[in-house]
Amino acid sequence: HCVVLSGYTEEVSRLFGCLLREYHHNSPFSNRMTRILLEQILIYVYRACPENFAAGGGSLQDRLRQIQQYIEIHFREEIKISHLADQYFLNHCYLTHKFKEQVGYSPKQYILLNRLSYAKELLETTDEQISQIAFQCGFGDVNNFSRAFRQWFSTTPREYRESKR
Q1: Who's near 45: CB < 8 A, 6+ residues apart?
Q2: Suppose 155 and one of 50, 77, 131, 159 were both cysteines; which one would form an S-S bond, judging by CB atoms 3.0 to 4.6 Å apart?
Q3: In angstroms, rounded to a whole number, what is the distance separating the alpha carbons of residues 82 and 108?
Q4: What is the mean pLDDT of residues 34-60?
């Protein structure tokens, strides 16, 4: 990423100069001073363009909760776990592991369960065709929808609808 540090250019240049001096002169506490200088530079980068940083920042639990809420709102859309991981600055595998640890389901399962839950609601409360319900819930086709529905609820969408009438 390239960032424009308007308003902070002189200060950041000075900090980079100090950082280079610390690197070239191995003085006592150089490692600690280097870390402090880098932290100061990163603070200026954040101040110059906070939109390039994870939404809300915060602890891992907070970010996982934000991801969970995002899924609950956008489950009808195509959601790629890799995009969520990038958006929240997490490794894809780490996100999947920690999400399952906190929520009890992997992100993919959680998306699927949100879609199926909404489908159950639509099957109970509307007369829409099953294929339309499948698309409204974010499934690419009715066969995938029916297969997933049967796998999770041991019944087909049609049988489920009939049992609720």
Answers
A1: 3, 5, 12
A2: 159
A3: 11
A4: 79
